[in-house]
C-alpha cells in the first residue's frame, strides 16, 4: 500500500466474519466536500435584472469551501458534484417570467436555468404573486479553481420582487471522481 490505495474484496472482523468496528475519531469521508447555504432575509430583485443571490449563511459546510462573502462554492476536491437550488421569487404585481440558474466560473451551466414563463402575457394577466423554482444537476469540478455561483431573475410588470428567504436554499455535495 505504498501509494495509499487499499483494494480488497471483503473486510471482516478478526474472527473472520461479522461486522467491523470503526474506532472513535475516525471519519469515513463520503459525499464531501458538501455545503448548504441560505439567505438570512428576503433579497430584493429589481425588475428585468439578473441578481446574484446573497447566500450569507450556511446550514453546513464540511470543508469550508463555501464563501459567504462572495457567495461562491469552490470545492477543494476534484470530482462530480450534485448541485441543487430551491428558489422562491415573489413579486407584488405578479410574475410573468422568473428564472434562477447555477453558473460555473461565471458562465451558465447548460440546463441549469429554471424558468417559469407565460408567453404573450403581461403581469396584469395573472394573479400569481410567487413562483417556486427548483433545479438539481451534476457538475464536474476540478478541485482547485472551478467555482459555482447562483442568481435569480424576474420580470413582473416593472415592479421589484424578492427572493424569499424562508423557501430558498442552495447546496452541493461530491458524488464521485
Which key phrases capture this entry?
seven-stranded antiparallel β-sheet; 177 residues; mainly beta; single chain; five-stranded antiparallel β-sheet
Helix and strand topology:
Layout: E1 34-38, E2 43-45, E3 51-52, E4 57-61, E5 66-67, E6 72-73, E7 79-90, E8 97-104, E9 107-108, E10 114-117, E11 130-141, E12 148-155, E13 161-163, E14 169-176
Antiparallel strand pairs: 1-4, 1-14, 2-13, 3-12, 5-6, 7-11, 7-13, 7-14, 8-9, 8-10, 8-12
Report on this model:
The protein has 177 residues and is mostly beta strands. The protein has a single domain, classed as Jelly Rolls. It has strands spanning 34-38, 43-45, 51-52, 57-61, 66-67, 72-73, 79-90, 97-104, 107-108, 114-117, 130-141, 148-155, 161-163, 169-176. Strands 1, 2, 4, 7, 11, 13 and 14 form a 7-stranded antiparallel β-sheet that branches. Strands 3, 8, 9, 10 and 12 form a 5-stranded antiparallel β-sheet that branches.
Q: List the total number of helices.
A: 0
Helix content: under 10%
User: In the CATH hierarchy, what is the class?
Assistant: Mainly Beta
Mean of residue pLDDT values: 84
Amino acid at each position: 500500500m505504498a501509494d495509499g490505495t487499499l483494494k480488497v474484496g471483503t473486510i471482516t472482523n478478526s474472527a473472520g466474519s461479522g461486522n467491523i468496528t470503526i474506532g472513535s475519531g475516525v471519519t469515513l469521508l463520503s459525499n464531501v466536500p458538501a455545503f448548504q447555504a441560505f439567505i438570512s432575509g428576503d433579497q430584493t430583485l429589481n425588475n428585468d435584472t439578473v441578481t446574484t443571490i446573497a447566500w450569507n449563511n450556511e446550514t453546513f459546510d464540511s470543508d469550508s469551501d463555501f464563501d459567504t462573502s462572495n457567495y461562491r462554492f469552490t470545492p477543494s476536491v476534484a470530482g462530480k458534484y450534485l448541485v441543487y437550488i430551491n428558489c422562491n421569487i415573489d413579486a407584488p404585481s405578479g410574475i410573468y417570467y422568473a428564472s434562477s440558474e447555477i453558473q460555473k466560473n461565471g458562465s451558465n451551466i447548460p440546463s441549469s436555468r429554471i424558468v417559469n414563463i407565460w408567453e404573450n402575457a403581461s403581469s396584469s394577466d395573472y394573479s400569481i404573486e410567487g413562483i417556486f423554482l427548483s433545479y438539481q444537476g451534476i457538475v464536474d469540478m476540478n478541485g482547485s479553481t472551478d467555482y459555482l455561483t447562483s442568481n435569480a431573475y424576474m420580470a413582473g410588470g416593472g415592479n421589484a420582487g424578492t427572493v424569499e428567504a424562508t423557501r430558498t436554499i442552495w447546496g452541493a455535495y461530491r458524488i464521485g471522481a
